[in-house]
Amino acid sequence: MQDNLQVKMDEFLPLRDVVFNTLRQAILTGELKPGERLMEIHLANRLGVSRTPIREAIRKLELEGLVTMIPRRGAEVAQITEKSMNDVLEVRRALDALCVELACDRITKEELESLKQACDNFELAVKTKDVKKIAQADVALHDIIVQATGNSRLIQLVNNLSEQMYRYRFEYIKDISQHERLVEEHRIIYQGIVDQDKETASLAAKLHIDNQKKAIIRQIRLEREKNK
């Protein structure tokens, strides 16, 4: 268990939701690692809460696919497998391509300015080498494109995938060797939208996901070799 895992209290949220959000964030950012056991008593003591909100949080995390129940072992952080990653990225690839194509037609001048700023912010975040900051800047950039579609159902679909996506994106961003490539891909997507060039923007969005997929598969296989 990481020493920096702690509950961030929120006066507007019930304790069970605060505990759930704390554990989910720890899983998404890798503070709680794939395969790590989630023992109710240990987590309750660590977070200074009773076992009830821990139990409720684990149940919700299982429904989200972030926790797996193992017979005779209990709850574990779900592994990042090639199958689970493929399932998420396959859908996200299609949705991202659709988002940039619609954004080419529908993005407003203000949103375009925000997207340019988001690209600049991402480059600044990369220079910090702070993985959390880079991931947040990446999410913010993609959110602008999604919102620019003006399609509420599409926005909902992308948001539903966002938590799972964040976990894979975080794994990718941890690989410093990929940072310059990410910056370049964002530039191409941005320019494609500026030029209303749907083909270029769509191809760049798909390549963005394809490169992410290749890099994470490399990491999964390296991890598997290490654990043999």
UniProtKB/TrEMBL annotation:
Please state every residue range assigned to the domain named HTH gntR-type: 13-80
Query: SMART domains from the entry?
Result: FCD, HTH_GNTR
Record carries keyword Transcription regulation: yes
Q: Which SUPFAM superfamilies match?
A: GntR ligand-binding domain-like (SSF48008), Winged helix' DNA-binding domain (SSF46785)
Which GO MF term does the entry hold, naming one? sequence-specific DNA binding
Q: What domain of life?
A: Bacteria
List the InterPro entries. Answer: AsnC-type_HTH_dom, GntR_C, TF_FadR/GntR_C, Tscrpt_reg_HTH_GntR, WH-like_DNA-bd_sf, WH_DNA-bd_sf
Keywords of this protein's UniProt record, alphabetized? DNA-binding, Transcription, Transcription regulation
Keyword Transcription on entry: yes
State what protein this is by name.
GntR family transcriptional regulator
Which species expresses this protein natively? Candidatus Acetatifactor stercoripullorum
What is this organism's lineage? Bacteria, Bacillati, Bacillota, Clostridia, Lachnospirales
